User: What shape does this take?
Amino acid sequence: MDADALLNPERRMLRVMQEKSGHDWTLAEILSSCEWIDQAIAVGAGHGLSNIGYVSTTETSSAIVRLADEGQKAKENGLLEARIWKWISDSETPSMADLQSHFERHEAGPGVGLLKRLGVQLEGGVFVAANPSAVDMGIQARTAFIQSLPAASEALDVNLMEHFKSRRGLIESVISTTRTWSLTPQGQSVSAEALVEKQSISEITSELLQSDAWKDADYRPFDVTLESATPRTGRSHPMQALIERVRSIFLEMGFSELVDDYVQTAGWNMDALFIPQDHPAREMQDTFYLEDPKSIELPKHLTDAWGAIHEHGGDTGSVGWGGKFSAETSEKGLLRTHTTVNTIQYLAAHPKDACRVFSVDRVFRKEAIDRTHLPEFHQIEGIIMEEGANLQMLVATLKTFYAKMGYPEVRVRPAYFPYTEPSLEIEVKWRGKWLELGGAGIFRPEVTEPLGISTPVLAWGMGLERLAMLVLGLDDIRQLYISDLEWLRNQPIL
Ligand code: PHE
Assistant: This one.
């Protein structure tokens, strides 16, 4: 360790200690020799010097018994038993009735108890003592005990200490630590020049920067490992911060952002995606259908095209789902259940232009709220439409995204969605376990052909709250939305 890094108080303390090398220095001696008033400076400098190995510190802890609030009053005004005993000794016929008019009720009751235990009795309503000098001596011993505090607990009479411990608020015991410091051979060998106190700069001001003085100035080092108060200022909610991060990653990867409405038709949310009209996920228990607008008109050419695909596959070579397609079902208003409803409409509007589009937005499903489910949550959606786009490119894109988020271990597994083929599930390794974060695939011809799209489209939809659970280390998704200020303040900056 280099003596140059010493702080000024450490330099001064070491210099002082070098004057008497074999000595064990007490706090008081250090304070007076260093001309300090503040103990914290001495203790801090001693701590610093012993960390570097220039001094060794010996700490001794001992229990000190001192007066508590009631004890302080007793020291000033006399113990309760002493005051009552004095009154008894001064009265001609000290009666119980008289006592109550001289002392308050909260003193009279306990006081009589204390005196009885010291040998005072009541005879016919009058206080008498068989051996008054024994009472005197007992009271004197107690008074002397109180007067002698504070004192080290070993030095005190055990019986009196037990007695006072049983009485409320008179005495208390505290642990006090005393330190002594002595020089080590390394501390002794530090040269006098190194111990000259330097003028060091702890604040960079504009005056300093405008002059040339900053060039040769000595700067006070900061110890960034020390505890400090956390500034409590306004900040983004961790969820918002995470959305910003996801956004900047996709923007950086060359994607454009898509923002669209929550209110959609069943046609775009499901039929366009070749989700059969009798699919269980379309039932009331999964989807929030709207009262207002109960239905939203769709162009006939769309419902006709979807109808043909669903009933017999249209011109795609698919056999469709069979059954009867209902345009009325298509026109039902709902809260979107996934953001794929928006990317598919973007494609329908730009069927010929290669694109990379993403969104991070809210979706709605009738889920019972629990540790991992909410009826409103967010999806990270994306598409790539491009000549030659293939499964490998899809997997590579998702891996790149998660690697940029800080999760380099990603794997995919086969899955099923009515609108993609092949379909896959994306999993990320977290704390040694694989966690499913979303679905992806290549849109089927039943989805792309009726919209006039002939280029391959890679698509994915991933849970944002799930990702937030990883990033923030949560085991309950609800934590994100309960506005627990203490928790919010302690979240990392993303
Ligand atoms: N929409 C699917 C979901 O909500 C995810 C997905 C999107 C799957 C795009 C494949 C392609 O879970």
User: Anything to note?
Assistant: Residues 338, 340, 417, 420, 439-441, 459-461 surround phenylalanine (CB under 6 Å).
